[in-house]
Amino acid sequence: MYNFDKSETDRKIRKDSYEFKYDMNIVSSKLKELYVDRQLSTNQIPEIFKIETGIPINSGKCYQIIKKMGLLRGKSESISLAKSTLDYSTSFLDDKMKGIIDGIVMGDGTMNVNENTKVARVSISGSKKEFIEYCKLLLAPYEAGELYFTPSSGDKDGCGTWTTCSKFHPDLYKIYHRWYNNKVKDVPEDVSFEPICLLLWYLGDGSLSSSTLNNSQSLYFSTNSFSRDCIERHLVSKFNSIGIEISRITSDNRLFLKTKSIVSFLQYIGGESPVKCYSYKFHIDSWRFKRTMKQASCELDLDYGKLANWVKNGFVKHSRSKGGKKVLFSEEEFKELSDRLSSGELSREKHKKALTRPLNIKNDLFDSQIARLKGESDEDYLDRMARIHIKNGFPYKKYSDVKLQKEWFGLVKSQYIIPDTSVIKYRRNGLSFADNFHQHIFSLNRKNKLSPLELFNDISKLKECLKKNNACNGLLTYAGLHSAICSDVRSPRLNNFPPLIARDLYNYYCEDGFNVLDPCAGFGGRLIGASVSKRGISYIGIDPSEKTYYGLVETQKFIKGVKPEFNSKIMLGCAEDELKFLRDDSFDFCFTSPPYFDTEEYSHDSTQSSVKFDEYELWRDKFLYVLIKEVYRVLKGGRIFAVNIGKFGRHNISEDIINMSLKIGFSHVGTKYIRFPIYGFTSSEKDFREEPLMVFKK
Hints:
The protein is an alpha+beta fold. It folds into 5 domains: 76 residues, no CATH class; 188 residues, Homing endonucleases (Endonuclease I-creI, Roll); 55 residues, Orthogonal Bundle (Multidrug-efflux Transporter Regulator, Chain: A, Domain 2); 98 residues, no CATH class; 199 residues, Vaccinia Virus protein VP39 (Rossmann fold, 3-Layer(aba) Sandwich), CATH 3.40.50.150. The chain is built from 28 helices and 23 strands. Helix 23 links the parallel strand 16 and strand 17. The chain is elongated.
């Protein structure tokens, strides 16, 4: 064994040498243990050596000392350590291996060459150990060595890179001269574009970025080390040959794929990452894998304008992209469209109309049943018509999934922001959409009035309604019957807050990231408004009615299907109780419309505020005051509380709200007025009424 105990004079050791700095007896003893007893390689030893002795050492110094000690483990190990070479007589370079090496070199890989022996080796370094281990497995035919870690210094202290190197081989010499022409690394003309090559290149040097602002994604490669000429001549043409389009090459030579080619590219390279550390590079929204309307029309050899018209009118089932901009077709939707075309139900002819009705409200379901008989009197006709309607059931506006999607995305589109004036224009868009999830609203009534459902099921009252709305003359449609019943002076339907006005108020008062509270959620108008707002807000609503709660949950489920990123929570219970479970200073905006005491009978359950507190003064003090006080507690400082309620009957609720809010600590920063139309069931000389929207600040 090599003797490390010679005198300093005999060994002529430099004072800055490794042997001078450290006790070589400790070093040699530990190296013998690690190398001989524990059978570790010289690439594995340094990290463990430093941990166990506190003495730094690199793999080269390991080999040098081990060789001096005469500890090499036989001929094969000696050759491996001394020369890092393989048997030159065997070639491993098939198309797949060429693709693997090209992919590594295109990314973060490098090559070293020995021109004397005409051999080269490939090495790959990176911060992700899992990825380097994966490359080591792929380079197994060239006996890639154990990984070793190189820590970074300076500002990046604590980080570093993992590296593995193959052994030298003539195969790799051929690859080297393809990539390093004139000793400068650049893309060869015959670069492999096998899936494995692009996969390794993408994992090493590719990026996938998303923008929530405009709902876009971009995929690019950092090819700044290559010449622009080679990128344009070799890489772009290679991408085109496999159907992948390039959008641009930036001034620093980054190569961007067209958005429509991202999915095709990821599918071409396997669709998922072979290593977990880079799985985020394959995270694509599921809707991007669906066919666009253009792709569907091309595959079916169908006129694009015709398909667009079918989509617009709800003739065919389809999906939408996140945000609703693109019309898409899932595999099931595309197959259904194809089957309907094959059966002749839908015609490919450009000007021929569809044979089926839109998938929306059944406007004329009973036309054939209620046709007037020859010689039938008005009274007999009204009686027969009324009985047919009652037998078939209340004319709910029940929407199909396609119609619901169309309605919801319609609410997303305009993103109007209310002007800074005192009057807010009424718009009813979205009310029928909300009714779809709250059909029980038609069984509820105003004080001393019938519910629409009660009037409908009373044959004498239904006949009067039909007669009043010219049913005998054939002027009352199925949809018109619904409106006639709900606007009858004897059975006015309950109010719901218009989703578009709610949306516009969120746009006006909220910012991205705001948490919104609605203590009296009602029939979903404000929930829907929050979901279609252009602000990225979260919504929490509270309601005491079980039927209304389940309607809100169904609304929430639908919204989750078209806008998965929208966060909402619905709580069942009395607002004055449930608010106490919410944290202080946890909301950015509160917007609600409380009950009008007992004007509208939402249910007769004991949870209803007007049932719990059956006198106005008691209701005001035990429900309304507590609600405002709790809202003040959970609202952040400087944030807004907006509440809409008008004067009905002898109780001026809005005035009481202002007085109580000021007493609790809010400042009244202003009042806007929502202009609602006057319906036939309200006696007034005016065409509209104005309800206050009181705005308070904590």
